[in-house]
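INFO batch 0412 | record 1 of 1 | parsing
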Amino acid sequence: MSTLIAINNYYYDRGGSEAIFFAHNRMFEELGWNVVPFSMQHSGNHATPWSKYFIDDLEMHGDYSLTQKLVRLPKVIYSFEARRRLGELLGRVRPDIAHAHNIYHHISPSILGLLKGRGIPTVLTLHDLKIACPAYNMLAPDGICERCKGGKVYNVVRNRCIGGSAAMSLVVMMEAVVHKLLGSYRRHVDCFVVPSRFYIDKFSEWGMPASLFRHVPNFVDVPRYEPRYEPGDAFLYFGRVIRQKGVATLIRAVAGARKKLLIAGTGPELEEMRALAAGLNADVTFLGHLGGQQLRHVIGSCRAVVLPSEWYENAPVSLLEAYALGKPVIGARIGGIPELIRENETGVCFESGNVSSLQRALEDFDSRPGAQIQAMGRAGRRWVAEEFTVAMYRQRIMAVYRDLGVHVTTASPLPLSASS
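INFO prediction complete | emitting tokens
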């Protein structure tokens, strides 16, 4: 019986990386594996008998006093609690492999050396650029930023990259320095799984050996998506309303093109974007947060989904969801987005951050015959059904595990109990 230790800061449905984390766990449970989670305590967590080993809740932006925050700061850099709790868990189970996702600032990379010392093969899926950029996203207040390249991590403090705070930026700089000295990533992780080829190239540019990385694309459960190929008359953006997503550029482009736009999502810049749309007299409808069938209905009724990102996007699942629902994508030519768009077959790309370039793409799409838009939607659906399915992801991940010497089983025995 194979056992997987599944590690992630959060054990509730918080965002896209958690969706991948839980889906990954489910697919291995369906193969008969014992999947043992290690995470952080939270009132919204899914129920699991293994939660008694989880670390205490740690949120630096929570409602804590200054003293409480100061006590928590060392854990952000290196969590001895996480090492101890994981050590206790490893006293109960002997995993064949550990697979971590987002562990920074909460669980922390402190656990990686423990896993290595116990001889447990360890995989880390990279949902962002954290192992290179202390601030996660290679994005400074003035735009795309690679100033920390070559070990110049003091730039994260100079540019106050974390929420405009010199103090918090200093903490993440210290975190980067400590784990660089310890070799937490380079020495203790056996394989980095990366959803986009762009990220592999970027990490290599920053000095990480390409041999440590494996390209494993994200996925969607395609049969659960009912495509609607008939194009609507409005374009759609769905996701967080934050600066790096390029929503302001999209609103300006829509205003210039005089086209309809739907925005499904919330975020810290929502009211600013409402004001921008009103000031430009743009035809924008803000739908608020949508999920499940409501969101799928809106996607299915649009003409095309727009991804106007202005940061090094990894491999957005939203793009795959658009394809699964039979919709073409207009995507910014940045990060991993272009490798997920077949130009003029499943969508088109435009110059990131360029209002005129996006405006031309919107006008072009609006002028295309409905039959052509439908053909692009069908091409996207075919592509996602061939390359980005649960089965393809499982096959690729199992190949990674085998390459690390893990004997992959697919039996269906009774699961190990946390209290046995």
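INFO post-check: The chain has two domains: 3-131+185-219+389-403, 222-387.
INFO record closed
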